[in-house]
Write a structure and sequence with these properties.
Blueprint: H1 4-14, H2 16-54, E1 58-62, H3 66-75, E2 83-84, H4 87-92, E3 95-98, E4 103-106, E5 108-118, E6 131-135, E7 159-162, E8 173-176, E9 179-186, H5 193-196, E10 199-202, H6 203-212, E11 227-228, E12 230-235, H7 241-251, E13 257-261, H8 262-305, H9 307-315, H10 320-352, H11 354-361, H12 370-400, H13 404-411
Parallel strand pairs: 6-10, 7-9
Antiparallel strand pairs: 1-12, 1-13, 2-11, 3-4, 5-6, 5-12, 7-10, 8-9
Helix pairs in contact: 1-10, 2-8, 2-10, 2-12, 8-12, 9-13, 10-12
Amino acid sequence: MISLAGLARKNIRHNLFRSIAIVLGVAAATGTIFSVSAVMQSVRTSLTRNADRLGSDLIVVPWEYKKKAEAAMADGTPITFYMAGSVLGEINNVEKFHPKLKRKAKVVESASPQLFHISSEAGCCDIGNKLLVGFKPANDFSVLPWLKNSNNTSIKNGEVLVGSNLPHQQGFRVQLYNRTFIVADKLEASGNAFFDNSIFMVYDDLKDLMIKSSAPLPDNLSWDQEIVSAIMVRTSPLFSTQVIANQIGHDVKSINVKGIVTKQVQTSIGKQIFMLLRAVFLAGCVLWVISFLLIAIIFSMIVNERIREMGLLRAMGARRSTIFRLTVTEASLLSFAGGSLGIIIGGAMFFALRNHIETSFAIPFQWPGVSQFSLLVAVCLGLGVLTGVCAALLPAIRCSLMDPDKALLKGE
């Protein structure tokens, strides 16, 4: 005895050309939306993790380097700039009047300095053209939280932490400016090349390396004083981050500084990327509408061609619900095949072109995890099947409501 699904498969094979057209239509729509959604999810995850990776609400830099620093945060390009370390004390002391509290309140909860230098490509360094970051473990909140080994909580002089993209593992030795360091740990992948390609060490070690290598400084600075490149700042929740950035820029008098709001940088980058992706996503939605109309038209044609066949089935005792389910089952099988094909093609292109996607966006980003990817597959496949079922719904209802006698007469 042939089942309902078996009969639906026979009908699909009997009208192979039309069946292929439906499958390809659903595949094009599903594949486009699936691949674009996967990229959008990856970018969103990366932007969120990158902001968290910095561990700060603000990054204070010399005002003339603000745009370059923002670009470096976006694309991971190593960059160096310097200012007097005394600016840290001024930043910690910045206050602003709070109207509700009716008094002045500190705008900075904590601040941590970092020093930047780029390793030489000469023989004195095992790894050249990499950003060396000196930080102070005692008050750090942007590097140590990303240690891969949970048993480690800090590093000592003579040790380094390496970004996830570097080949060195825990216990390896690294030579920098003819001095050997031990890799204490590796940082978790952040998706941000500015950190994932960098080497982190204690502030005093990096300063010592820079002095011995005769690293150049601006004319108004000397190694007799404390030198920093940037100040990582955690802001008070009493004020907005942008207000605090403006207040710091106004109150710090020793040097002109600018506060970069880390989330604004990420949001700005995200908006540019999502504008492009939204256009592609809309194109996928248009394909989806076309597929819906295509399936509806084709099934209307199928119903018209099978009037006599449906009449015979009804005359032989088939129920209205059986006729309805036969049409819907056929649409479901075709839509499922199209959705599966679209996801396979879209997923294959997504992974095959991942390096090109990263290069085009000029931002490294996290690829979806297994759970996110599985959920996306299930949603897109479900939407594909739902599209086919909904498109065939009206023809299926019309077909099931036909009177057997009239259907047999029309089919003659």
